[in-house]
Write a structure and sequence with these properties.
The protein has 7 helices and 12 strands. It is α+β, with helices and mostly antiparallel strands. Strand 9 and strand 10 form a beta hairpin.
């Protein structure tokens, strides 16, 4: 038996005289301390990219601000919304309700170009992130941009552009594909759908609404964000 009976990569490395290999392995598995956030509160996209939850806290950008969303149950490293927004600017994505990777960090747009519904949606998300989570700085790339109209409208909006109500939660609710939802606030031809339920299948950018598969009929219909409530 003797030395030949010694097993395990570390022991084998010593037997072969490969001490540097052992040291390299030890360094690899030693947890590195997290990076410090900018002390002056001034971030850029490169700095933000490091705060994706893998080693550092999870931060994202919204309307020129950087928010620490590490406490969110819906934004985790490599999962769901975290795949898209963690360590990135989410402003354009939130306004257009886009879950496309290419719309994160997008800055070739103007606030004035948003439709009324997009402006309301962005205002709701701005309120959600800046009131529920800690603002830790501002994005240098947005210097000179004017988001005052968004901040003003945020006073009367909740996420997805739904009007504020006394009973609504301050931070609102995040909806995702597969969620069971209840239809509400419909008028005209869709009024009879109020109170019915369905499953959220996705967001149709061309039609500007969420596609919901109705439980009662099995058919798909498009609804505005404010017309959907997540079922308990």
């Amino acid at each position: 038996s003797g030395m030949l009976s010694v097993v395990g990569p570390v022991a084998l490395a010593f037997v072969l005289g490969a001490v540097p290999v052992v040291l390299m392995l030890l360094r690899r598995f030693k947890a590195e301390p997290p990076d410090e956030m900018p002390s002056d509160g001034v971030w850029n996209l490169e700095t933000l990219s490091k705060f994706d939850g893998q080693r550092n806290p999870i931060c994202l950008g919204v309307c020129g601000l950087v928010v620490d969303v590490s406490a969110s149950e819906n934004i985790k490293y490599g999962e769901s919304y975290g795949k898209i927004w963690a360590g990135r600017d989410a402003t354009y994505s939130l306004a257009t309700l886009s879950l496309k990777m290419e719309d994160a960090n997008k800055m070739d747009y103007k606030v004035a170009d948003f439709t009324e519904d997009q402006h309301k949606a962005l205002a709701g998300w701005y309120k959600h992130f800046t009131t529920k989570y800690k603002v830790v700085g501002r994005l240098q790339e947005y210097e000179g941009w004017d988001f005052s109209s968004v901040a003003q409208e945020a006073k009367s909006q909740t996420p997805f552009g739904a009007p504020r109500t006394d009973s609504s939660e301050e931070g609102g609710v995040l909806l995702k594909r597969g969620d069971a939802v209840t239809i509400r606030g419909c008028e005209g031809a869709q009024e009879e759908l109020n109170g019915t339920s369905g499953v959220l299948e996705g967001f149709d950018r061309d039609k500007g609404g969420f596609e919901v598969r109705l439980d009662a009929t099995g058919e798909a219909a498009i609804f505005k964000p404010a017309q959907l409530a997540k079922k308990a």
